[in-house]
Amino acid sequence: MRFWDASALVPLVIPEATTHVVARLLRSDADIVVAWTATIECVSAFVRRYRERIASEIQLAGALNRLTDLSARWNVTEPTMTLRSAAEKMVARHALRAGDAIRLASAVLAAEGSHEPLEFVCFDRRLALAATAEGLRVVPNLSGSESNS
User: What is residue 141's three-state secondary structure?
Assistant: First the structure.
């Protein structure tokens, strides 16, 4: 089972340089865990591409449809007081932005409740470093790249 950050979810839906990597990860383990904010973050990334004229209206509609199909299979960590408290601690401990702290806290709590090891799929270098510090195994192993998703 893997926890997927939005930086890894977006290339599952729209073609990017890392699409082949995330597609391989998904084929090897289709059990996806995400933060409750995942679809919001993905929609934001898709709409941003449309506004910046990187994607057409038809491409945006296709991405939103693919996201709907993919998200129907996700396991979602729900917003709870425990999650909020954990995210607040992540902000202080790792100097993360709120969204990153929510995702990291969601992954840490999901790992605690899992009977098997949980990998953290992420292309954001700062978040990956914080996840590693929290004891999560980050995949793929980043070599200095940072996502703009």
Answer: coil
